[in-house]
Design goal:
The structure holds two protein chains of two kinds.
Chain A lengths: L1 E12 L2 E13 L4 E5 L6 H8 L7 E6 L9 H11 E4 L11 H6 L12 H11 L15 H13 L5 E5 L7 H16 L3 E6 L2 H4 L4 E6 L2 E3 L13 H13 L1
Parallel strand pairs in A: 3-7, 3-8, 5-6, 6-7
Antiparallel strand pairs in A: 1-2, 1-4, 8-9
Chain B lengths: L1 H25 L1 H39 L3 E6 L20 H10 L3 E16 L2 E10 L1 H6 L4 E4 L4 H5 L4 E4 L1 H8 L8 E4 L2 E9 L14 E5 H9 L6 E6 L5 H15 L10 E5 H44 L1 H9 L4 H37 L8 H28 L2 H6 L1
Parallel strand pairs in B: 3-8, 5-7
Antiparallel strand pairs in B: 1-9, 1-10, 2-3, 2-6, 2-9, 4-7, 5-8, 6-7
The chains are: A alpha/beta, B alpha+beta.
Chain lengths: 246, 415
């Protein structure tokens, strides 16, 4: 799913060039749940931005699903983000003045294809995170954990293969955070590819594999484990079969 | 396939617009602030256009009533000599024959007539009233736009024979006879007995507000010999063949009169010319000045309203940086962001313009009820106001929208 080799990215602040990623390589197999650990400022979000096609690396190669992203083409890049990637952020990034349902439906405004079932898709996504009964509530009327689940529903609404989560529990208490991790775990077990970025070991340990970002490089097992060792593989196969059937 | 895709895009654009409207509606204060400048501006324009159009109509109507192709030659006021009070206050050189000379000599004149004036007291049936006496020929009545409403006009024979026949202005007729028909009744003017042969049609007031209906009109010769006892005339009324040739006619008249009444060089001419074209130009100029005033108020209002829209949109972009980053992350192209903010600006402006039209029409309606104005409503102007506001909003939205579209998604999300 993800095949990144030798990624570099640096930022320029005034005259100083600050290197953030220096030759980072990462491979993530389809259906795998990988946690990237790192101290704050280690470049986790930068990495996630590149993986999510929001930011272009200075050097190195990145293949998403076997193909290099169309970096120069804003329309194609946006379409790829829309169809293939779902984001979950630490601050939720919900529209405060719009209902949960409208928030979940936001990616559909930019989707290609038939519009007829947009409302149904948003409702089903909310159902999948157990918030169908909150569809017409505004974010301010929901708890932190519920808001993050709305955000997850928004990430799922276009049925993307890859979910990128940036400190998804960082703004939540332990209980709500645990629920969010359960939700992500369940998605992974059903075959979604998930890359989660965190600085908390307890959070990272819910993933299939943990890599650590340090000095702009990754340490830890660089390659996915063999298929036999992966938990949830059966569920993934189930999911794939169901998707093929539908 | 392509058609299906564009249909889908249209459907999603409609939804995107609906979301924008909901977000604008939710930010009540910000939206109200953005809209208010334009609303006040458009309302002001609507009121000014309504009242201005009425004022212009009135001025033009008054000028038209006096005749727009008329040149008036008046005897000049005589200068006092050695401080002595003079019996006659004007030069006494103009003659009835001058009118005939002008009509014969100038190709630009279609008719000319001599006129005498006097303030007289008219008696009838034990009542009296003060009125302006006008003595003139049948041509003169025509030139001065005097029309007989009931009864009949006098003819040339009656003028030559100095018959004592009179036409009453409506005001005089009412003052002396009330609602009764005065035709055929006797009237004494400065003690001279006359027969009323007709009543003039009402002419209203002149530009200065004087009552044009408080007059008695008698044949020129009758007025000169039997009432006023003068050998000169007070004025010559000359009608041009067309309004465009008034200035040429004025030059001709000046030349002809200078030849007939030479004065020593350096002395002022014994007559003054009053060109109706000048009045018309003045009236048109006033109307145009009013239009310019309205136009500049409109521009000022639109500039102020536009500035309000721009500042609110810029604030909106700043405040919604996270939203912009999020929309990019979930698949919005730069174009989509651009379009969203341009349309929001247009919606904002159209709302302001629409509210302004409504407020303006209400205010103009109230003014018409309270003041002396007739309301001149123009639905086309109202629609134009809303359309202009919307276009203005779309145009003004471009810069804030470009700023929004330029944002780097990563930076926007982290801001």
């Amino acid at each position: 799913m993800i095949d990144a080799v030798g990624l570099t990215r640096s930022y320029r602040r005034n005259a100083t060039v600050i290197p953030v990623l220096v030759g980072l390589s990462l491979r993530v197999a389809r259906g795998e749940f990988v946690a990237v650990m790192g101290a704050s400022g280690s470049g986790k979000s930068t990495l996630l931005g590149i993986l999510g096609l929001l930011d272009r690396p200075d050097g190195g190669t990145y293949r998403l699903d076997g193909a290099e992203p169309p970096w120069g083409d804003d329309a194609a890049l946006s379409a790829a983000r829309n169809a293939a990637i779902g984001f979950v952020f630490q601050q939720f990034h919900l529209l405060e003045r719009a209902t949960a349902l409208r928030n979940v439906a936001l990616p559909l405004l930019y989707a290609a294809g038939d519009v007829a079932d947009d409302a149904g898709r948003a409702e089903r996504a909310l159902e999948a995170v157990g918030l169908a009964h909150r569809a017409l509530h505004y974010p301010g009327e929901l708890s932190g954990g519920e808001q993050q689940r709305v955000a997850i529903a928004r990430a799922l609404v276009n049925d993307p293969a890859l979910i990128l989560a940036d400190e998804p529990t960082g703004s939540l208490d332990a209980t709500s955070g645990g629920e969010i991790l359960d939700t992500l775990r369940r998605l992974a077990d059903r075959g979604r590819t998930i890359v989660l970025v965190t600085h908390e070991r307890a959070v990272a340990e819910r993933a299939d594999r943990v890599v650590t970002l340090h000095d702009g490089r990754l340490t830890g097992p660089p390659l996915p484990p063999g298929p036999a060792e992966r938990p949830g593989r059966a569920a993934a196969a189930d999911d794939a079969a169901r998707a093929a059937g539908s | 396939m392509n058609r299906a895709r564009s249909a889908a895009r249209r459907g999603r654009l409609a939804r995107s617009l609906r979301l924008s409207v909901e977000l604008l509606a939710a930010h009540r204060l910000r939206t109200a602030l953005g809209v208010s400048g334009l609303m006040v501006g458009v309302a002001t324009v609507v009121v000014m256009v309504a009242i201005g159009a009425d004022a212009k109509r009135r001025v033009m109507a008054r000028v038209q009533a006096m005749g727009t192709d008329l040149l008036l030659v008046s005897a000049a006021p005589a200068p006092p000599i050695a401080g002595r009070q003079r019996q006659v206050a004007v030069h006494t050189t103009l003659r009835a024959a001058d009118a005939a000379a002008i009509a014969a000599a100038s190709p630009y004149a279609s008719a000319a007539a001599a006129v005498v004036f006097g303030t007289v007291v008219a008696h009838a049936e034990g009542l009296n009233t003060t009125a302006t006496l006008t003595g003139t020929t049948t041509d003169g009545m025509d030139i001065r736009n005097m029309r007989v409403g009931s009864g009949r006009p006098f003819d040339e024979l009656e003028d030559r024979e100095r018959r004592r026949v009179v036409l009453l202005g409506p005001t005089v007729a009412r003052n002396l006879f009330g609602p009764a028909d005065p035709v055929g009744r006797p009237v004494r003017i400065r003690g001279v007995p006359f027969d009323v042969i007709g009543v003039l049609r009402p002419r209203g007031t002149d530009v200065g507000g004087a009552d044009l209906d408080n007059v008695v009109v008698v044949p020129l010769e009758t007025a000169m010999r039997r009432v006023l006892n003068v050998a000169y005339v007070h004025a010559l009324a000359v009608r041009a063949r067309s309004g465009e040739h008034l200035d040429d006619l004025e030059a001709d008249v000046r030349r002809i009169l200078d030849e007939r009444h030479p004065v020593r060089s350096g002395m002022p001419a014994p007559f003054v010319l009053q060109n109706q074209a000048v009045l018309l130009r003045t009236a048109r100029g006033t109307a145009r000045a009013m239009e310019r005033l309205i136009a500049s108020v409109a521009v000022l209002a639109l500039v102020l309203g536009g500035a309000g829209i721009v500042s609110v949109m810029l604030a909106s972009v700043r405040e919604r940086v996270h939203e912009i980053g999020l929309r990019r992350a979930v698949g919005a192209r730069r174009r989509d962001i651009q379009l969203q903010f341009v349309l929001e600006s247009g919606i904002l402006a159209a709302t302001g313009g629409g509210a302004g039209v409504i407020v303006g029409l209400l205010a103009a309606g109230a003014a018409a009820l309270l003041g002396p104005w007739d309301l001149v409503l123009s639905w086309r102007a109202a629609a134009l106001g809303v359309a202009c506001s919307a276009l203005l909003g779309l145009a003004l939205g471009v810069v804030p929208a470009a700023r929004a579209a330029r944002l780097e998604p990563m930076a926007a999300l982290r801001a």
